[in-house]
Amino acid sequence: MSDVPSGGPTRDASVVVARDDQGQVALLSAEFPRHGGQYLFLPGGRREEGESPEECARRELREEAGIVAEQWRALGTYAMTLESTARVHLYEARELTLGPQQLTPTEEDFKLSWWPMDKALDAAAQGSFLLAVGPLALLLVDRAR
Asked: Is the pLDDT of residue 127 over 60?
């Protein structure tokens, strides 16, 4: 990431657990050669200038997954690293409308798939997520069910 100096991330981020009416979770996957393969992750990304955490979550969900949600629930806010004041804001999104992904050139290989929550949690337990924030968000949503 170009915006991650030695002191850690400099901008907050938002990550979304989007669940459809059947309770399935929207997961993205892509190759991460620097990390040795393909990994799963939740829609999300860094906040843009002047954007609230929820506005960031809405934008990232729409762009990366092609999803617009009517119902939003904050799951919590967590530090990204000890070296930075940047935080990650977690959300659950429901009442979904599906549309086309709006991927940037660096996101062109992002593949969207729908997983039952128990299978997504199994994948998290097997190390299929590159970043820990995805499994944390899934666990928070599952615990609230």
From this structure: yes
Which helix (H) or strand (E) covers residue 76, if one does? strand 67-79
DSSP three-state, residue 26 = strand
Per the listing, tokens 């990204």 go with 80
For residues 22, 121, 60, 53, the Cα torsion angle rounded to the nearest 10 degrees is 110
Q: By the 8 A CB rule, do 110 and 26 touch? A: no
Is the pLDDT at 57 greater than 80, yes or no?
Answer: yes
Say how far apart CA 86 and CA 88 lie, in whole Å. Answer: 7
Task: Report pLDDT for 51.
Answer: 96
Instruction: Give the pair of three-digit tokens for residue 76.
Output: 């919590």
